[in-house]
Amino acid sequence: MATYRPGRWPGLLTSFSSKLAILGAALILGAAIGETRIPLETVGQVLAMKMFGGSYPVDPIDQGIVWNYRFSRAIVAASCGAGLAVSGLVLQTLLRNVLADPYILGISAGASTGAVAVTIAGIGGGLVSLSAGAFVGALVAFALVIGLARAAGGFAGTSTGQVILAGVAGAQLFNALTSLIIAHSANAEQARGIIFWLLGNLSGVRWPDVWLAAPVAILVLVIITVHARALDAFAFGSDAAASLGINVLKTQAILIGAAALVTAVMVSIVGAIGFVGLVVPHAARLLVGPRHGRLIPMTAITGAVFLIFADIVSRIIIPGQVLPIGVVTALVGAPAFALILVRGRGGAR
Amino acid sequence: MTLTAHALGWSAGRTPIVSDIDLKIEPGELFGLVGPNGSGKSTLLLLLSGLRRPSHGRVMVGDIDIQKITRCEVARRIAIVAQQLDTSDRLTVRETVELGRTPWLGPLTPFGADDDEIVEKALAETGIGHLAERRWQTLSGGERQRAHIARALAQKADILILDEPTNHLDIHHQLSILALVRRLPITVVVALHDLNQAMVCDRLGLMAKGRLEAVGMPKDILTAARIEQVFDVCSRSIGDPASGEPILRFALSGEEFDYEGVSCFISCFGEQHCACRDLRGEDAEPRRERRNGL
């Protein structure tokens, strides 16, 4: 394999276009596969008709399934997968911890609590949107976890074990708060809906969700890509990054803010999906190495494709029933997580 | 470019770690910093590199206060290799050295031909050109230290700060790192533990308890009296039989022990006499005759 040289744009562009092609193929598969058999030709016709105009003789029901139900869902799954995966990557790099991820660090739990506080407990009096509540919850949870880790690590700051332990504590606390709010304020029907949503679920997703998820995912990807070189500089720690001219506090604030934003938005749409942010960056690192110029697009695309396929699996694995997508990602993610733990112990990484 | 510290101090909470440092490092000189563990050498180096904000005083590079310019502008002037820099990323040596170009590149500026040339030169200067494609995890301690120095050289700064670059290295690697540091045409500030190795510096600063005790030529700084005072060891300068160059020999001072109710005290190097003192506190005559019995 040719060695990667940072910032060689032509090389990046060719790999970028091939990534877009893979993403496009995954999206079409997401629109094509499901319980109702719809021929690929029909799927192509529907997509072509909706995106580029023209008219084909397509059954309006098929049209609705492909365009409104499956395709919108595939785009949200892709945005969500890409967003959560790059969040995990950013957290792993900035905290220098192979186990960091929005789910493990309690950010997803905090976002859930924020969302539930707005929708069920009515905090904000209807003036605060669900996503804003989730964002505040995500930031509060992250601040708490990092504060706890720093307090536990003393003057030396955040060390490997403490961040994860603090994250576990934070996630437990916020999950408990979520349950408390639901038990206290929700009626039976609300509670059922919320609990299903909390497990991670794309069932209710339609086009309006796309217009929230996709722009946020793209915005966050752009922000993180612009900081690729700064993220590289964190390889030897934050002091080393500072000695290379990086404004550490500003970079951390921007990138962690971006990670919290994308996590919060995704949680507010589809609930807390675990393991994507943890496992995907590691897989991408195995494929393209540690330099962020290549790692960020690879992580984003792998995350997007992974979640599109996880969603397909969740729709078809049990006939007549939709499995929460979080169950599918956990079924893949938990063994992968165990593998990372074992390898980390052996000093392989 | 001169590097100056004015009444510099830094405290961790309320505990002062370094205080009242006044120091001027001249362009092109090799300045060594020696002192016991915990004397504040590393903290002083972090302050000089701008990585810690001083609690008191200031650091000037040329005639600019380094707290008043951006991190990036500091990084173009000062490069630092701190202690214990490690990574779990599977970076190659070349990728590590390329990090040194960070302060000169904008977020979207591509890596250019002159950047490649600078990286190549830094690899060659540190003698690790043949390791360029090796992964970080496969390197020995000496090779990692060289890679860090190469990364700092690729930064093209005027001043290079090294915190105990010979730590944990075998004698060959220690000497070759020192030889490399001496060859460098730029200003180098280096913390060292080995006082004999510190002799090669143009000037030395001796630190004790967070203060700069003395600054000057190595032979004027490393006197027996000062070494005993600061490091609590006895030292003796002996000449190399061939060249006559001074070599320091060290021994623990003040080994006290109890002998038949008499507190004894072996003087340095143990070869003179045993000065004993009565436990009642009265000064006793040195009892030379006891020496063989001890």
TrEMBL record, chain A:
<keyword id="KW-0812">Transmembrane</keyword>
<keyword id="KW-0813">Transport</keyword>
<dbReference type="GO" id="GO:0022857">
    <property type="term" value="F:transmembrane transporter activity"/>
</dbReference>
<dbReference type="GO" id="GO:0033214">
    <property type="term" value="P:siderophore-iron import into cell"/>
</dbReference>
<feature type="transmembrane region" description="Helical">
    <location>
        <begin position="103"/>
        <end position="124"/>
    </location>
</feature>
<feature type="transmembrane region" description="Helical">
    <location>
        <begin position="255"/>
        <end position="283"/>
    </location>
</feature>
<dbReference type="Pfam" id="PF01032">
    <property type="entry name" value="FecCD"/>
</dbReference>
<feature type="transmembrane region" description="Helical">
    <location>
        <begin position="130"/>
        <end position="151"/>
    </location>
</feature>
<dbReference type="InterPro" id="IPR000522">
    <property type="entry name" value="ABC_transptr_permease_BtuC"/>
</dbReference>
<feature type="transmembrane region" description="Helical">
    <location>
        <begin position="295"/>
        <end position="317"/>
    </location>
</feature>
<keyword id="KW-0472">Membrane</keyword>
<comment type="similarity">
    <text>Belongs to the binding-protein-dependent transport system permease family. FecCD subfamily.</text>
</comment>
<feature type="transmembrane region" description="Helical">
    <location>
        <begin position="12"/>
        <end position="33"/>
    </location>
</feature>
<feature type="transmembrane region" description="Helical">
    <location>
        <begin position="323"/>
        <end position="342"/>
    </location>
</feature>
<feature type="transmembrane region" description="Helical">
    <location>
        <begin position="71"/>
        <end position="91"/>
    </location>
</feature>
<feature type="transmembrane region" description="Helical">
    <location>
        <begin position="205"/>
        <end position="224"/>
    </location>
</feature>
<dbReference type="InterPro" id="IPR037294">
    <property type="entry name" value="ABC_BtuC-like"/>
</dbReference>
<keyword id="KW-1003">Cell membrane</keyword>
<dbReference type="GO" id="GO:0005886">
    <property type="term" value="C:plasma membrane"/>
</dbReference>
<feature type="transmembrane region" description="Helical">
    <location>
        <begin position="163"/>
        <end position="185"/>
    </location>
</feature>
<keyword id="KW-1133">Transmembrane helix</keyword>
<protein>
    <submittedName>
        <fullName>Iron complex transport system permease protein</fullName>
    </submittedName>
</protein>
UniProtKB/TrEMBL annotation, chain B:
<keyword id="KW-0547">Nucleotide-binding</keyword>
<dbReference type="GO" id="GO:0016887">
    <property type="term" value="F:ATP hydrolysis activity"/>
</dbReference>
<protein>
    <submittedName>
        <fullName>Iron complex transport system ATP-binding protein</fullName>
    </submittedName>
</protein>
<keyword id="KW-0067">ATP-binding</keyword>
<comment type="similarity">
    <text>Belongs to the ABC transporter superfamily.</text>
</comment>
<keyword id="KW-0813">Transport</keyword>
<dbReference type="GO" id="GO:0005524">
    <property type="term" value="F:ATP binding"/>
</dbReference>
<dbReference type="InterPro" id="IPR027417">
    <property type="entry name" value="P-loop_NTPase"/>
</dbReference>
<dbReference type="InterPro" id="IPR003593">
    <property type="entry name" value="AAA+_ATPase"/>
</dbReference>
<dbReference type="Pfam" id="PF00005">
    <property type="entry name" value="ABC_tran"/>
</dbReference>
<feature type="domain" description="ABC transporter">
    <location>
        <begin position="3"/>
        <end position="234"/>
    </location>
</feature>
<dbReference type="InterPro" id="IPR003439">
    <property type="entry name" value="ABC_transporter-like_ATP-bd"/>
</dbReference>
